[in-house]
């Protein structure tokens, strides 16, 4: 269904997400309008990125927001009549809110919990003695559109909560987010997936649909024409891909700077926002291009822009001059975007040309190919451990950084653990226990004894499994399951620009291959392999399996956690 067929905001690639963005914006504005006069907006740092993807400051100012502050500083003595807090329902953060409410007597306070109101949040404010002094509500930033076809849950702590803490409340948040999508575009005809948590999510969705009072007849009438299916894959099914280095422009910007809320973390050298979403025409053109080709493409775009500027000399009539003036604003915006992305690309280029980057990429490709590290690569790992810096910058986490990262960045704990996790995951039982123990001891010596907890937690969630655990896995039909999947699903692909593996220099993400199995993509699927793949993705909600045609990749919604 195309957008011209109806008013459902559906295009050839599936639903466009402007409708969702407008819904989130209207909910926020409704909250702001409950307080009259000038007001301040106090943001939890973990909420600010999601908010910036939904609304800009100009729209907030139209509804009385005079100042914006981070929660750590608060509104202080700002001359406003009311303060609106947008915070996650976290004990430490809500206690900080309570302190600021007590200090700001005489103002009207609204505390909006993101993405949902919880009993824990109410209890913390009640114990702090301020529950009666605030208006408590919720802002459902649980499905944030970061791009034309990407929705993010913006909950980076969910993996640890599920796999380490056993906190399943995040599944409820995901279910609410998916129900919101279904409320806009109809119920998913099918829900398929991989993993125990995927099954729990499907059951939650079934229960929510039942609570809406829809029976089987109602389901048939309300099925989505925008989506063929919802595909849910547990992160545990593919923990390797986030540890690898993408070689597209977008992937390397994320690697070097970090991407937060649809923008390059930290902005440019002056702190100005650099867009990293499809709303930016320059970024949209280069985001998926291999970084080796980005320079030539930026050069071509610069020459095209120069030609467009020069066209003003050919304008002779009033109509031609008016036409150029009408395009001038767009040309200037493109000029600024090009300038920003050229600066970002130069910083990325300096990093990719460093010996350190090349050595790390070589180790990744060796492990993905199923080979062991050679002596030179082992020496590099030892050197990384020896030169580790406990205060080194971590892209996407230290978002206040303003200066471009150095070409030879210090070795952070994040980088060290990333290498060791890759070794443990890919080598499995082939990794020697004495090597694992030696690395363990070196990390503790370099970063402190308190990181024994970090290492044990990584082992518990399956990111840093000891070789002894890999050898003793019960019921495993293969000594190294990842080695088996590499062959069965064609994960290692060399020199194929049409395969998704080009983004990782020859490795196809397992989660993407699972989706290709579902869509019967020729890259992995043949009639002879149908029985072998049957168990990889299974229906998670039999009541909803009302359609049997193959799922098309264009109409499967993308939800990122």
Question: What attributes characterize this protein structure?
Answer:
561 residues; alpha/beta; five-stranded parallel beta sheet; three-stranded mixed beta sheet; globular; disordered N terminus
Structure overview:
Helix content is 46%, strand content 10%. It has helices at 18-32, 45-52, 57-62, 91-103, 119-127, 158-163, 169-185, 196-211, 216-221, 249-256, 281-286, 291-310, 318-352, 355-368, 375-386, 413-427, 433-447, 451-460, 467-471, 481-488, 510-518, 530-533, and strands spanning 10-11, 14-15, 39-43, 65-70, 82-87, 108-113, 134-138, 144-147, 150-152, 191-194, 230-233, 259-260, 263-264, 538-539, 559-560. The strands form five sheets. Strands 4-3-5-6-7 form a five-stranded parallel beta sheet. Strands 8-9-15 form a three-stranded mixed beta sheet. Strand 1 and strand 2 form a beta hairpin.
The radius of gyration over CA amounts to: 26 Å
Main β-sheet, in a few words? 5 strands, parallel
Distance between the termini: 28 Å
Helix content: 40-55%
Structural shape: globular
Helix tally? 22
The secondary-structure class comes to alpha/beta
Number of strands: 15
Quote the average pLDDT: 81
Strand order of the largest sheet: 4-3-5-6-7
Please indicate the percent range of residues in DSSP E strands (runs of 2 or more).
5-15%
Low-confidence stretches: 1-8, 215-221, 399-408, 542-561
Task: Offer a quick outline of the entry.
With 561 residues, the chain is of the alpha/beta class.
Walk me through the topology.
Blueprint: E1 10-11, E2 14-15, H1 18-32, E3 39-43, H2 45-52, H3 57-62, E4 65-70, E5 82-87, H4 91-103, E6 108-113, H5 119-127, E7 134-138, E8 144-147, E9 150-152, H6 158-163, H7 169-185, E10 191-194, H8 196-211, H9 216-221, E11 230-233, H10 249-256, E12 259-260, E13 263-264, H11 281-286, H12 291-310, H13 318-352, H14 355-368, H15 375-386, H16 413-427, H17 433-447, H18 451-460, H19 467-471, H20 481-488, H21 510-518, H22 530-533, E14 538-539, E15 559-560
Parallel strand pairs: 3-4, 3-5, 5-6, 6-7, 9-15, 10-11
Antiparallel strand pairs: 1-2, 8-9, 10-14, 12-13
Helix pairs in contact: 4-5, 7-8, 10-13, 12-13, 14-16, 16-17
